[in-house]
Amino acid sequence: MSSIFAPVSTPAASIHELSLLVIGICAAIFTVVGGLLAYTIVRFRRRDADPHEPPQVYGSYPIELAWTVVPLMIVFVLILATTRTIGQLQKTTAPPHALQVTVVGHQWWWEFRYPSLGITTANELHVPVSTSTNPRPTFLTLESDDVVHSFWVPRLAGKTDVIPNWVNHMWIEPWETGTYLGQCAEFCGVQHAHMLIRVVVQSAADFDRWAAAQEQPAAVDPRVEAGRRLFLSTACVNCHTIDGTPAQGTFGPDLTHLMSRHTLGAGTVTNTAANLYQWVRDPQQIKPGCRMPAMQLSDDEVNEIVAYLLTLK
Ligand code: CUA
Question: What CATH number is given for 222-309 in this structure?
Answer without folding.
Answer: 2.60.40.420
